[in-house]
Amino acid sequence: MFDIFVESHFSAGHHLRNYPGNCERPHGHNWKIVVTVRASQLDELGMAVDFRVAKNAVKEALETLDHRDLNEHPAFLAANPSSENIAVYIFNNLKESLRGPHYAPYSVEVRETDSCGVVYREDPAGA
Q: What is the span of the domain harbouring residue 106?
């Protein structure tokens, strides 16, 4: 197995509805993102997935979030735009656009700060 990763970022504001603390008030982050793609084998060029393909797919997914009030984004009208929910949103956006014959998205890491973040990956068994 090969795990290929690309890092990116976006800036956005949000607030956590019904949160008992400062995060209930509007604020922003420079979110750092790490997307990992897992590949079972290499292609004829000796690559698991072209970095350019991965970077472009991540860029497209993040463009829907960049410089927005995430609470107004359709994906977060009913669910809080927490790091966890943002990671799921990005992962789901990459399921189709970053899938090949021998590779697929494996995980999405979302960091609000350098020292706080979350990693999301789906359970392959579907549990």
A: 2-16+29-120
